[in-house]
Amino acid sequence: EFCIFPLFIFSFYRKSLSRSSVRSRMSLRSPKVYSSLQKGAVIWDPKPLQVKKIFEALKKGLNEYLEAHQAELDYLSGRHKDTKRNSRLAFYYDLDKQIRSVERYIRKLEFHISKVEELYEAYCIQCRLRDGAANMKHAFSLSPSTKASRESLVELYKNFQGCTEDMCFIEGALEVHLGEFHLKMKGLVGFARLCPGDQYEVFVRLGRQKWRLKGKIETDDSQTWDEEEKIFIPNLHEKFEIKVTELRGLATILVGVVTCDSINFYTTKPQAIIVDITELGTIKLQLEVLW
């Protein structure tokens, strides 16, 4: 008698899960292979809170781009009306071409935003179903053991695993829509700690992506680096790890290792990032990030 009502709920839950199966409703594959989608690199531990933070930052950044291009379109449209009356025909057509180009880009942005929202909505559905399966598993485990309850526990476990797999699948698909981070090396800031002739190595890691560059302090206190720019593909689960070492002949001395979250990089304007490499902040690393 105890199992009649839960089994009815479970039957409804199983139908809901079938209707909401992510991979049966939409194709999320992309020709680009990102870290979460690589074979053997699937993260079977969804992180809904982290995904929510990235989604909100991503949507805010995309809307900033949309507003900026909408403002540009309004400006060009105003000039277009004046030019039609007062300017040469060739200039008028050139302006018309710019307007059509901005309109196409706005449509792409709107589609991008709708796709991200669609993915996140599907993610939230799977998250709620997964939580429901976990709660029901707990309830059945507390009930007297019967054949029906044991069968229900087996099915609930399968559905829990299915929701987990779908959530990880959506996380990988959402990662494809995060864009690119263009990092530019601006140099080390160290006041008296940096002396002419000093050589340093900076190692930046984001998941499996790595950037290793070497620099030297010149006699005029300027800095030369063997590489100045690098593109990173954003990752939902990983933070930037930055390691700085000082090169002294054949020896290397660790200056410091820090991590940096990318949550604030999703914006239209280049971000100047100054990271304390040492605990006291006597040496800092300055980067510029453009999303």
UniProtKB/TrEMBL annotation:
InterPro entries registered for this protein in UniProt: FAM65_N (IPR031780), RIPOR3 (IPR026136)
Source organism (scientific name): Casuarius casuarius (Southern cassowary)
Family as reported in the entry's similarity comment: Belongs to the RIPOR family.
Residue ranges of domain FAM65 N-terminal in the record: 14-291
Protein name: RIPR3 protein
